Amino acid sequence: MSRKPAAGRRRLDPMEARGYDLPTREPRIASPLLVRVIYALTLGTWIVAALVAATAVVYVPAPTWVQRPAAAVLLVIFALGLIHRGGGRLRIWLPLVTVLAVAALVFGTGVLIAAAAALTAVLASVLAVMNTRPASTVRAAIGEYLLALVTALVGTLGVAAWNAPVNYQRFNLVVIGAALTLVIIMVWNLGAGLHGMGRQGLLIPVGVALVLIVVLAYSSFVRTHGSETVIDAISQAVIFLRQHFGGVPRPVEVFIGFPALIMGVSIRSKRREGWWVLVFAVIGTAVLTTSLVTPGALPSYIGLSTLYSIILGLAVGLVARHFVLRDRSSRSSRAVEPVARVEPPRYAPLK
Q1: CA-to-CA distance for 101 and 119, rounded, in angstroms?
Q2: The whole model's pTM is what?
Q3: Coil, strand, or helix at residue 259?
């Protein structure tokens, strides 16, 4: 009499890593050598334009008329990088962005300058997130974190170089709203829709969204209905930090945007739901790219505030990463063993 095998879940040991979730299009240029040359020229132009745009923030003996052309070059390169990374149509979108950049340079009206500055901030903040790679280790996550922030900081220099006559609060809200809309569209088109989320994959974005709502609602409530004691305490804390440390960390970056960047690239190494966490990271990069939009902003104060936000956001993100990626129970050892996700290289289209 044959024995019936014991019921239970069997462990599956994959023999090879799973491939990328989405089919990618054929290379736009067939010659690998020509591709490397184009990448090198684009990167070199991006670095030179960033250095020239930095003259709007750091005083150097250079003419002021070079700042807006450098910002226009950065705008076109950000558009080129994001369209290429998202697998979009360069023949349609890149000429439109180039026309806006040239028109802003030639006519120099307030509306065109403001539109070019806003588009620079939006494209830089979204590209900073979309150009990341999955990170399975803490060191890799920190590397992706720093690379994304460097991209966003260059976008900050580009926005500052436009020297747009805008209201900061209104400009900031417009950029955050446009960047969130754009990144949600791109993430959805990557196949990371809500239909593929598991229970844990759905709880993480919902939790981040709740934290965002609480932070924004609490800050708005304190400003409008808070007692004088609470408002005075916050004002005194801000004054203390400015006097003794030279800057004040921004709560939206420390508790939402930058930790979401660390968690997003880490979760992406196992599950594609990490893209939805990275949607919230755009809030942090968008706030960063708009921090120097007003000519009256003090670069030293903004720089120190950004540095403190980066350090604290990294610490919060690493703590959150530890709890999110750890095994929930011993039952996980009996589950199907997860494999590392494979994505295209950094300079290749995601679809």
Answers
A1: 10
A2: 0.84
A3: helix
